[in-house]
Amino acid sequence: MIDIYSRYIVGAHVHAHEAGILAVEMMKEIFGVHGIPHVVHADRGTAMTSKTVAALLADLEVVRSHSRPRVSNDNPFSEALFKTLKFAPVFPERFGSLGDARAFMAEFVDGYNHHHRHTGIGLHTPADVHYGLAGAKATERTAALAAARARNPERFNTNHDPKILTLPNQAWINQPTPEKEAA
Length: 183
Hints:
It contains six helices and four strands; from the N terminus they run ββαβαβαααα. It is mainly α. Strand 3, helix 2 (51-59) and strand 4 (63-66) form a beta-alpha-beta unit. The protein starts with a strand and ends in a 32-residue tail after the last helix. The model has no long low-confidence stretch (mean pLDDT 91).
């Protein structure tokens, strides 16, 4: 499960099979640590469309959002995460055991959250954005770039930071449309 704004993996469980009750366990654990979100977006897998997950989210007044049937790119944030995972040079052909898979995921999640830099979040790490550290780091980058420009003006053709270093204002999947006021 990821926070789509920061790309921070808030939780990852590895099981031998998927089930609604396991998804509920994961959500309760994650919500206990990170708080209850306003919206949970998921694919249409059996665990995420189960009555147990629906009941939990309804009880917590969390809006459920689902990808359209057979449309894999309805959740680009998760798809990007899975691609990063599967194309990692250390991703094995097979795991020797469930324990090996869990150990791999724990190490991957730590590296992804704390060391992997994303172009979609200004080349920050998910942890820096999730925990509110990105603003200070962006200020440090701006100062470092300004100092580099002053030392070597011939190497730069602009006086402003590259656009890629800008943090987005918000991130959405299935953004709700504003309701029109009655006339």
